[in-house]
Specification:
Helices cover about 25% and strands about 25% of the residues. By secondary structure, it is an alpha+beta fold. Among the domains are: about 70 residues, wza like fold (2-Layer Sandwich); about 80 residues, Outer membrane lipoprotein wza fold like (Roll), CATH 3.10.560. The chain is elongated.
């Protein structure tokens, strides 16, 4: 009888161990097969995806924790190489990063090399682009991510009847200039160029 009792008890223990092993393997296989193992994109407050800083953005950097005189607010525009210039000749990469990433980079550039402690806040000023010439409502327009030249012209009320649509000029803040044939861009979206903060678009007048 005792022998039978030991056999039953041993069988129950083996079954429990087997089931626990299966559960562990199943959990591990689910974790291994989960797609997108890399870091998730940075989240902005409220759950949205943070918008990345672009070339041409105007940034205001505020230094706290008793910085040297004249450091309270420092303004610079993101250069063509993606950097901004800061006091003591420090340059940091800004384009393609979130506000939080740039703040961390700036702090690491000064502490502990120049200062014992420093708190940095970065603000991306409201961004604009400009549309002039033969559009219905020329002027400065608030920038939104993902704009193209055709969309920018629509934001300015569209072309006037005098517009020369085949010679629309786009000028970047770094001085680069491009000419876009908007009639072709309507058919071939690949030639409809992106618009960035600070860009200027001009629609020339058609010659009669």
């Amino acid at each position: 009888m005792k022998k039978l009792h030991h056999l039953v008890w041993g069988a129950l223990c083996a079954t429990v161990l087997f089931l626990l092993g299966c559960a562990s393997d199943s959990s591990g296989s689910k974790q291994a097969s989960k797609p997108g193992g890399g870091s998730p994109p940075p989240a902005a407050p409220g759950g949205g995806i943070s918008e990345l800083i672009r070339i041409g953005d105007a940034l205001t950097v505020t230094f706290a924790d008793l910085p040297p005189p004249g450091w309270s607010d420092f303004k610079d525009r993101v250069k063509d190489d993606g950097t901004i210039g800061l006091p003591l000749g420090v340059r940091v990469e800004a384009a393609g990063k979130t506000i939080g990433q740039v703040q961390q980079t700036i702090e690491a550039s000064y502490v502990p090399r120049y200062l014992k402690r420093l708190t940095v806040s970065v603000k991306n000023e409201e961004r604009f682009f400009f549309v002039g010439g033969e559009v219905r409502t020329p002027g400065r327009i608030i920038y939104a991510s993902g704009l193209t030249v055709l969309q920018a012209i629509d934001s300015a009320g569209g072309f006037t009847e005098f517009a020369k649509r085949t010679k629309v000029s786009l000028r970047r803040v770094n001085g680069q200039q491009f000419v876009i044939d908007c009639d072709k861009a309507l058919q071939e979206h690949t030639i409809d160029m992106p618009v960035f903060p600070g860009d200027s678009i001009n629609v020339p007048k058609r010659r009669w």
